[in-house]
Write the structure tokens for this entry.
Amino acid sequence: MGMVEINFDGLVGPSHNYSGLSLGNLAATKNAGKIAYPRAAALQGLAKMRHNMDLGLVQGVLLPLPRPDAAFLDAMATGTGGGADPALTAMAWSASSMWTANAATVSPAPDTADGRCHFSVANLVTMPHRSIEWPDTLAQLRVAFADERHFAVHGPVPATFGDEGAANHMRMGPAHAEPCVEIFVYGRPGGRFPARQNEQASRAIARRHGLAPERALFIEQAPEAIAAGAFHNDVVAVANEHVLFTHEQAFADREGAYAAIRAAVPGAEIIEVPAARVSLADAIGSYLFNAQILTLPDGTMGLVVPGECMENPGVRGWLDEMARGNGPIRHVLPVDVRQSMANGGGPACLRLRVVADPDHVDQRFLMTPEKLESMADIVTRHWPESIAPAEIGTPGLADRVISARNFMLECLNLKELG
């Protein structure tokens, strides 16, 4: 097929729940303690994958990690139910690996010194419940991208420096399959909420991926955006090929950031949403920028947004106006990911972008209509319909969660991830 962009969406795991573990993620903390619906969440995610496939795009999947994490509970000297400390129990049950934008930072082959696609798994050290994910994520990436002629899959940067993966990384250039400029967005500590992406982590990844200096930009996220709940850059900005779609208040030095991008990316087009039209609060509440800009088979671009964008008059008005204009984004494509949104992740959080030849990827991770239907059947039959806070840590639910994941591994012939 040749090199194309593949979106690898995370399948929402059977332990999906609302424990409110993520400080600075306003949706997650707001909905802490509510009943979650893992079955509906996973089916919504699969419908989103089907939506992209129906557009004519290549779609991949990454699977839930083992939960509850018995090794973590054992290391913390608590029982498998975690009764000694409810907070530890919640960490061990977290399904947050579904947000695969945090799985790794990806530098496609056209950008790198050795002509291979490089992955650096994110250490996610800022949030304890996420910091335990990377070993299992790394193992899965090394199966999916095992062909070392085309891929290099690295472990995390040292935990001294926080790294949250592709959620703070953008790539801009003439086309996905051509050399592009990679933009690393970092935060500075000391604000109301943690700045999760460290500048030194970003610079280390750029070096290890073999990016030439002119192919790497390092831009500071606006402190006011982090304080308002934009815990990752992809909550206030998203890029695709030569287009940057961003909120006016996304970057600490707005004019400097735009000048650097325009200098590095010939033909860069910046679509800025003014704060006077869509406030930072509305942008974060609707996840307007936690969207997928997709290059469609006809060469036009579509913006996949959460349905919540259509419910906010100001956001919807801006989107309608943009789609009617002569700009590069011609289609606004709402999807229903309400269960993910209630836990703090929109369409962009649910996917990891990989530019590669699909023939070089382990085919078990690439979606077909038949595979999608089989997965939906497994979810319908085995994912819990609901999880209430009091159920987290109970042996019966643990058995069901483990069994459900095992059925999915069997469905995709990926038992080595068990």
In short: The longest strand covers residues 4-10.
